[in-house]
Amino acid sequence: MAGSRAKISIDLDALRHNFRQVRKAAPNSKVMAAVKANAYGHGMVKVAQALDEADAFAVATIAEALTLKQANISQPIVILEGFLDLEELTIALEQGLICVLHSSYQLDLLEKNPPSDLTSDLKVWLKLDSGMHRLGFPLAEAESVQRRLQRLAGIEMIGWMSHFSDADDLNNPKNRQQIADFQQATQNLSGERSLANSGGILGLPESHFDWVRPGIMLYGSSPYADKTAEELNLRPVMCFSARMVTVNHFQKGDSIGYGSSWECPEDMAVGVVSVGYGDGYPRHAAVGTPLRVKGQKVPLIGRVSMDMVTVDLRTQPDIKTGDEVMLWGGGLSVDQVASCASTISYELLCAVTQRVERE
Ligand SMILES: *Cc1c(COP(=O)(O)O)cnc(C)c1O
Predict the structure, then answer these.
(1) Is 219 assigned a catalytic role?
(2) Selected catalytic residue, list 36, 219, 277, 346
(3) Is pLDDT of 2 > 70?
(4) C-alpha span between 301 and 50 (Å, rounded)
(5) What residues flank ligand 1, with Cβ below 6 Å?
(6) Is pLDDT above 70 for 263?
(7) Whether pLDDT at 114 is above 90
(8) Whether residue 224 lies in the annotated active site
(9) Environment class of 182 (CB within 10 Å of its CB; exposed 0-12, middle 13-18, buried 19+)
(10) What is the Å distance from ligand 1's center to 248 Cα?
(11) In angstroms, rounded to a whole number, what is the distance separating the alpha carbons of residues 166 and 249?
């Protein structure tokens, strides 16, 4: 639609290209693609349909898992937070959803409500805490937790999972420590193993084990602070664009926007672009954050408002009302925008709001 003020378009070929980079980096591992949070804002069902070569999908919540089921996604669906209560456990069982067990309250619940009277087993991963200190059983309890699980009927344990805390920084020695500790805690126990997120997949081959769990790299953003997506041969999947609403001409000393925080250093053209934090453009994007018009970068000036942002058009005298403005994707890396807004691409990709048209 020509008239849309802010829109995202999703490049499913780029998504499949990025999936092939996962296979290339970890050729001997199965792939559990992370599609939680609406596939990092890209549209969970369409992404899952496009990734028909994935061996499984990982979501955060039961509701997300049910959405995939209702869309007839046939691969196994893993709920990373498992179930919180009996109601969720029952749904997981009935729908054949795979649960991650990370805490003893989940084992208590299973012991009080053994799933044995149902026709199919409840499939589970056991999550170990190798240093993230968020979810997971202590490494030292691995064996006892497995024994506790084995006493229950109606459960099929797939394997062991853990999560990196610092894989965005390959030089951090914590990564190797986590790999070694996870390896050691599970080496004499039965079950498959899974540790690597995108950072581990592309930079820590010893972390690949039986299953890898890519998220951000599928969407074409770099998992590392010091490497670009381009250097990693990843292609951006989301393109976020808006339009030039108007081009104003102000005089030296005129201030722009809320708080009058930016002053024109000379007589100049200022563009108003049809996107703001109400669309998911980050309010904390600093002055100088690049936007792209006609293949050229222009810097953000003033504060981001709810529906609009302002840009310095001194280098772009030919821009007109209605012209397309790229916010990220389309030659402008989301990682760069994230860095200008003191955040990470994950947050920006997830934050695009309902108001934005989707293509
Ligand atoms: C989100 C998530 C992933 C994917 O992480 P990326 O850094 O996006 O690759 C993998 N494992 C778990 C447990 C997750 O929550």
Answers:
(1) no
(2) 36
(3) no
(4) 38
(5) 34, 36, 80, 163, 197-199, 213-217, 223
(6) yes
(7) no
(8) no
(9) buried
(10) 44
(11) 47
